[in-house]
Design a protein that fits this description.
Elements: E1 41-44, E2 47-52, E3 71-73, E4 79-82, E5 89-92, E6 98-102, E7 110-118, E8 121-128, E9 133-138, E10 143-147, E11 166-169, E12 175-178, E13 185-189, E14 195-200, E15 212-218, E16 225-230, E17 235-239, E18 245-249, E19 256-261, E20 267-271, E21 275-279, E22 285-289, E23 316-321, E24 327-331, E25 337-343
Antiparallel strand pairs: 1-2, 2-25, 3-4, 4-5, 5-6, 7-8, 8-9, 9-10, 11-12, 12-13, 13-14, 15-16, 16-17, 17-18, 19-20, 20-21, 21-22, 23-24, 24-25
């Protein structure tokens, strides 16, 4: 790793457990944020990117606030993100400036986000850890329905034991909701939002979960599959639309949080332990992007801006790509950090 992107020192950081809202962050003067001497390039081969530091921002320079959610890209090319502030859903324009936001009532816990087009209109499907519910909204925040805790599953004594982290929608409108911060089940609902069954449960054997953190509908093959980012088992797992186990990928991953499809048929994986992993269309590792050299800073929420370096992630929590192949990466960070990787 180039000396200009190495970390020179260690500090003790305030750490916030996943699912908890952090204490108010103290502002850091812009002059304390390190600047690279020139362009920083990460990746290899067909996956080379120019690092564009702290791309997502408010025009007045205020912090985004704790970024502990998901990313998505709408048809207009806006990048959507979640924060734990009153701007639970934030939209960024091409230059990275915030152009819209909403969600005061969802402050603290908007964690999973899936964007889906239906009848020519785009909708958001969301998972909220603090409200213990799944939500469907319009892009501007109008709530269309909510689903509470799955009492019919017979797994929970009360809603507080249920902390959903992700949601995915099947081609027929059926819903998958992952209880990533609760009891490690994925719940299946039909298109009318009626509970059908629960998939997985805690464990390390194939088909079981230890923090099913992220979900994605994998349509790369002949039939759609549900992909589960089984974070604390350090693997991805695939299931049929009926919830039957198909296969896994457990090589080269470090606490995978979420995935996003790439134009070449591969996947970008947000690995919480300090990097983004690129997989090919056979789910084999191509390269790692922004891998943190210092193990003490990996998967850490409280890394201050004075320690941010171009070319280095700390806690990638979500990743997405636009039509041009540029990547957008959300670090789990109390100040709020979203980086753009420009495709070369």
């Amino acid at each position: 790793m180039s000396p200009r992107i190495c970390l020179a020192s260690l500090l003790l950081f305030a750490v916030t457990a996943p699912g908890q809202e952090p204490p108010p962050a103290q502002p850091v003067p812009a002059e304390l944020v390190p600047k690279p001497a020139g362009p920083v390039i990460v990746g290899t081969g067909a996956h080379r990117y120019e690092w564009q530091a702290e791309w997502g921002h408010y025009e007045d320079g205020k912090d985004l606030g704790n970024t502990h959610g998901c990313l998505a890209v709408d048809k207009a090319g806006r990048v959507l993100a979640n924060t734990d502030t009153e701007a639970a859903v934030v939209a960024f324009g091409a230059d990275g400036k915030v152009v819209a936001s909403w969600g005061k009532e969802f402050r603290g816990g908007m964690h999973g986000m899936c964007l889906r087009e239906e009848g020519g209109q785009e909708f958001l499907y969301l998972a909220h850890t603090g409200r213990h519910e799944a939500v469907k909204t319009t892009l501007d925040g109008k709530v269309l329905w909510t689903i509470g805790w799955p009492q019919g599953a017979g797994i929970y004594e009360n809603e507080d034991q249920y902390k959903p982290t992700a949601i995915a929608v099947a081609p027929d409108g059926a819903l998958f909701v992952a209880d990533g911060y609760g009891k490690s089940w994925v719940h299946l609902y039909d298109a009318d939002r009626k509970y059908v069954k629960s998939i997985g449960g805690p464990g390390s054997e194939p088909g079981k979960f230890k923090t099913p953190h992220g979900l994605w509908l994998d349509t790369r093959g002949e039939v759609p599959l549900l992909l589960v980012a089984d974070r604390e088992n350090h693997r991805l797992q695939w299931f049929t639309m009926a919830g039957e186990y198909v296969r896994k990928c457990d090589e080269g991953l470090e606490r995978p949080c979420n995935v996003w499809p790439l134009a070449d048929g591969g996947l970008a994986v947000a690995d919480l332990k300090g990097r983004v992993t690129i997989l090919d269309n056979k789910d084999k590792v191509v390269c790692h992007l922004g891998d943190t050299a210092d193990a003490n800073l990996k998967a850490t929420n409280g890394v201050g801006k004075e320690h941010w370096r171009a070319g280095t992630f700390f806690s990638p929590h979500s990743v997405c790509a636009d039509k041009a192949g540029n990547l957008y990466v959300m670090d789990w960070n109390r100040f709020g950090r979203i980086t753009r990787l420009k495709k070369l």
